[in-house]
Amino acid sequence: GVVLAPIVGSIxxxxxxxxxxxxxxxxxVEITDTSQRGFxxxxxxxxxxxxxxxxxxxxxxxxxxxxxxxxxxxAEDPRTRRTLDIVVTYEGDLTKARDLTERAAKxxxxxxxxxxxxxxxxxxxxxxxxxxxxxxxxxxxxxxxRYWLEEPYKLLATRSQVQTSVWGRLEDxxxx
Length: 176
Prior knowledge:
The protein has helices at about 5-20, 60-65, 95-105, 155-170; strands spanning about 30, 35-45, 45-50, 55-60, 70, 80-90, 120, 125, 130-135, 140-150.
């Protein structure tokens, strides 16, 4: 009984996973407590196999994966919102900084440039990159750029491209 309990528990959890379908083969997921991201490669009655972004794989028993928080980046709508925080000194041109930051994000290929609002549940968010004042700090105004990606598969590369684009735009402007 002691030996069979975990196996039977994983099989029962596997039945629930297959019925609920919180993710499917090919979905990009993240196991939040370990911060491991990857693609679902296989779902059986006993386990879920995830190929990580480091090209290794993780096999998680279904009994354990049902008890963990799993983020599915490519569920029904593959568009994903990301943020970038920036500090602009009080001497800088705040309006210009916000405008240049938004335009810099629009220059990146995978970033959604505009269009109809994106609906998430009952909320609607602007599809185009938007730069908001997040707060006031000791050394300047804290801005938060929000932008949407068409697909979640190259999060780090796209974030780096957005940061590079923002740096290039702000470097040539009267913004510190």
